[in-house]
Amino acid sequence: MERASLLQTGSIDAFVCGSAPRASVAPLSPDRYKLQVTIGAGTLDKLRCAQDMLGHAIPSGEEAAVLDRALTVLLLELAKTKFASTPNPRPSRGTKAGETSAAVKRAVWVRDCGRCRYVGAGGHRCEERRFIEFHHLDPKALGGEATVDTIELRCRRHNDYEGQLWFGKRRRPGRLRPGQVNWVQNQFD
After folding, report:
1. Which residues, 6 or more positions from 130, have their beta carbon under 8 angstroms from its beta carbon?
2. Apex CA 119: angle with CA 113 and CA 125, to 5°?
3. Which of 41, 92, 123, 131 measures 20 to 30 Å from 106, CA to CA?
4. Domain count of the fold of the chain
């Protein structure tokens, strides 16, 4: 019933994302921000527990310091999951054909600061950090290699845009066959 009323009032964001409001971020100075969020009782309990457990390291229990520490740990854990990040990586045992190695992904992510590297005609770099993909400067379907020098981060839209520049607007189902690759190469020669 609540979702139906959200649709009728035109609040699509609230319908898609649930009824919780988005966080409010306001700059206070060049390197300080005010963050205002609405959290549930369970999240508040976790925050209070973290404050208690960090009492030796953060005696004031300042929420900003606890949040900063929690986000640092979260980002490290996400890096381990997403890029096989570790302080002492093992030597690569090779990757499956066509796959990008974890070492290359880690290096590209750090070099591009985790954001889209697309630069528009006006010289402005895309600010997107969500839905980031590894973009092959020389398309993989045309034999491009997966090295740090030939891969950049792109947001989904810019990766798709550059794919359309190479292969046209219509996507072909499945992988390209060798005959199709020659046809695509001839179109751009």
Report:
1. 155
2. 50
3. 123
4. 2
Q: Are residues 109 and 65 in the same domain?
A: no
End-to-end Cα separation, the chain, in angstroms: 58
Q: What is the mean pLDDT of residues 22-40?
A: 92
Q: How far is CA 78 from the centre of its chain?
A: 11
Q: Are 155 and 118 in contact (CB under 8 A)?
A: yes
Residue 84 lies in a domain: no
| Residue 52 located in a structural domain | yes
CATH number, domain containing residue 138: 1.10.30
State the average pLDDT over residues 119-127: 91
How much is the pTM?
0.55
Model confidence at 10, pLDDT cuts 50, 70, 90, reads very low
Domain that holds residue 155: 102-177
